[in-house]
Amino acid sequence: MTDPAEQDLRALFGQSTAVFAVLTGPAHVVESASPAFLATVGGDEVRTGVALADLVPGPAGQALIARLDEVYGTGEPYTGRDVPGAGPQAREAFFDFTYEPRRDAAGAVTGILVIGVETTQVKHAQRLTAEHRALLEQIARQAPLADVLDGMARRIEDLAPREVLVSVLLADADGRHLRHGAAPSLPDFYNEAIDGIATGEGVGSCGTAAHRREPVIVTDIATDPFWADFRDLAGRAGLAACWSTPILARDGALLGTFAMYHRVPRVPQDTDLALTRVFAGTAALAIERHHTEQAQHAAEARARAAHDELAKAVQAERELRAEAEERAAAAAELNAQMRAAAAAQAPRPHPEQCQLGGGAGCAAPAEIKLADSWGDAAWGCAGHVEEALINVRSVFIANEELGGLAAYVAR
């Protein structure tokens, strides 16, 4: 079984064609020739017995006749590489030709034997390979996705044998809408109008292809029901046909759509479909690579954010620990002051009467001793001790300038 990729290459480049012809006399009359040769130089006019100059008019024919005249005149063979086709053929064609002089029994040149092989396929394959390699290098260098897709669209438009306008739409994460990716040759108003279209049955070629996960070929936009809602828009953009292919990830997830628009109604040929498959795969590679990079950047951003939050938490913990240590040190200092004050007051004599009555005095016996962190101490009765605890404590806490027990005793 032939590999699908090989089938695509054969569809794109076909088979090389061998040509030959026998030319007679200085006028290079076509004595006999292969159909391929006659098709190359004469188009639809398949004739023998006619001078080659009559089959190949114009500058290209003049260059060919001049080369044949040289071989006929000198008797020296000539080999040409990648010689452009000289006939009125519609497609671009190149050949490797060998012109061999024919001689009679006496050695005189009587004509020329033309043998050649078409190299068009080789040149196109080389060009496609070079363009494809350039795209892969862009992807490997992590070029912006927009640049890769825009460059890809332009390359396809250059490689296609007929005029084509390429568009790539990118699927949202939920696969329900398609966003503009690249469309260098479509009008801006058209790109803006379809940016964000839904995926679904009958939503143009691209929306339907994305919904079905299979190619959708619309050969005539003017009559196709899928384009009912976009027919006027397409008409203003000068679009008559649209072939859309879904771009799928390796796991089958929708990545976007790859579309080829045409100015006239057209049915795709095998070469068109092969070109679509080749570059849809490249687009999938570029988009998947972009998604991977985005996921990596997002993961790195989350990691940086988590690291920053952890650093903030560690700093806050350090600040709380330092504050707790300061409070513990202050409490230890206050406790030491109170112990020192109590020790300083210990030797003082125990009065008989309450010292907490203020200016009015109090004749009640002194039963309880109070002390504060300033080193003041006093004895009092139960009633005045309770009053002092309330007042001195609040004053002590609220404003140290009011002093401790000494200020209270002398009130």
TrEMBL record:
Q: Does the keyword Coiled coil apply?
A: yes
Task: Give TM segment ranges.
Answer: none
Q: Which residues form a coiled coil?
A: 303-341
Report whether Coiled coil shows up as a keyword of the record.
yes
Please name the SMART domains in this protein's record: GAF
Instruction: Cite the InterPro entries for this sequence.
Output: GAF (IPR003018), GAF-like_dom_sf (IPR029016), PAS_4 (IPR013656)
Q: Name one Pfam family in it.
A: GAF_2
The domain of life is Bacteria
Q: Where is the GAF domain?
A: 131-297
Q: Which UniProt keywords apply?
A: Coiled coil
Q: Per its record, how is this protein called by name?
A: GAF domain-containing protein
Native organism: Dactylosporangium siamense
